[in-house]
Amino acid sequence: MQDDDMYAVWPEKLTRGGGPRYRQIADFIAQAVLENRLLPGDRLPPQRGLAQRLGVDLTTVTRAYAEAGQRGLLDPRGALGTFIARPAAQSAQLIDLGMNMPPAPLGCDLQDLVQHGLGKVMDRHDVNVMMAYHLAGGGPEGREAGAQWLAQAVGPIDPALVLVCPGAQAALAALILACSQPGDSIVAEPLVYPGLLSAAQHLGRQVLAAEADADGMTPAGLERACRESGSRLVYLNPTLQNPTAHTMSAQRRRDLVRSASACGAMIIEDDPYRLFLDDAPPPLASYAPASVFHIATLAKCLTPGLRTAFVLSPDQESREQVLAAMRSFALMATPLMGALTTQWIVSGTAQVILNGVRAEAQARQRLARQLLPGPFHADPVGIHVWQTLPAPWTAMDLARVARDEGLSVTSSDAFQVGAGAGPNAIRISLGGVKDRQALAHALDKLAELMRRRPYAHRDPIV
């Protein structure tokens, strides 16, 4: 491309309301490369000239070029200028379709929101206070913010019953310690969040699979498992379940809490994806507040870096028991992140981010529906897909071969409770890939892989 043509492919202005301007520029470069309108070796306009053309300040273009560079799209050559990079080698780092995390929120600039939010926090708090030890379980402001966040699902609640935890995994471990003894069983569905399996194993408990049907754990299965094992603790993930993406009906939720109460069992309701749905059935905690611990983490609906989860306890005594258990391994949530979380919830920023995550998740689910072969189960607003595999693929073979091809996915055996054959499926997580173009490439590559026949695995001989 000649220097006098370098502006030809560029728009004359950016889209109003189309999200952060630096990201619009980086996304434009990515799309132009994808469509071969910009080719390897093409020189980009000087930053100052492009800023004048688009009507933005120089720092916006500088940041856009930096963002495109992080995506591997650009080749800066000092005084010679900035050029479109040649395609990366196939040995590049794995594309992560395995870690279930929210995508970057559409229309939001997280860097600016974090900087602005931390500025507000430090305007109100002394740095020495932020860097000191704080009350375990959260102070009054943090619990009030937690109550405000939980009220979206559960309705008005007493902040005194809220526990602020350093992530859902810490909350889950504390609940297991507080509500069971070594050697006890935890009743769960046949496919569960792997963090439960890991926590139970390391804490000396076992996870027992109850009977389940298309709507999840059955009431008869819960009662039978509790009766036969003596368990008094049940784990459920009723909304956009990990890994199946199924949402349990309201009637099944009512029946399960009734059965748990009849057995004298407490329920851990792990509900990280609930706020993606506008019409989710009421949480289990709303049917039986005296026998349900409700966990809501921000890691799956806002960003994992906040390391904040809220636990709603049935009463003050049970809250104190869980808090005592958590103190044995995690003295407190990080004060700075806790203060930022509180500031975001109270100011409404958290809701803005949630809306942006939901919008981006919906766009990524549309991509999945276009590119992945059926059958698979997913919700149009969720962040993962439960993909059934065609014969002769097995889940473990597909995960291994995908890794050889530079893709990370999660085999069904990671979620399986106990021995025996599980479903022949993989979980595909849509949020970990940074931009949609890269996600589309990864999903297309995975779909092509599923259309092939698996090859025999042999260790290399040297």
UniProtKB/TrEMBL annotation:
The protein's matches in InterPro entries, at most eight in alphabetical order, are given as:
Aminotransferase_I/II_large, HTH_trans_reg/aminotransferase, PyrdxlP-dep_Trfase, PyrdxlP-dep_Trfase_major, Tscrpt_reg_HTH_GntR, WH-like_DNA-bd_sf, WH_DNA-bd_sf
Transmembrane parts of this sequence = none
Q: Which Pfam families match?
A: Aminotran_1_2, GntR
- Please indicate if the UniProt record lists Isomerase as a keyword: no
HTH gntR-type domain boundaries: 19-87
Output one GO MF annotation.
transaminase activity
Q: What PROSITE patterns does the annotation carry?
A: HTH_GNTR (PS50949)
Question: What UniProt keywords are attached to this protein's entry?
Answer: Aminotransferase, DNA-binding, Pyridoxal phosphate, Transcription, Transcription regulation, Transferase
Q: Keyword Transcription, does the record have it?
A: yes
Q: Mind telling me which PANTHER family this protein's record contains?
A: HTH-TYPE TRANSCRIPTIONAL REGULATORY PROTEIN GABR (PTHR46577)
Which family, according to UniProt? In the C-terminal section; belongs to the class-I pyridoxal-phosphate-dependent aminotransferase family.
Protein name, per record: PLP-dependent aminotransferase family protein
Tell me the organism.
Answer: Achromobacter seleniivolatilans
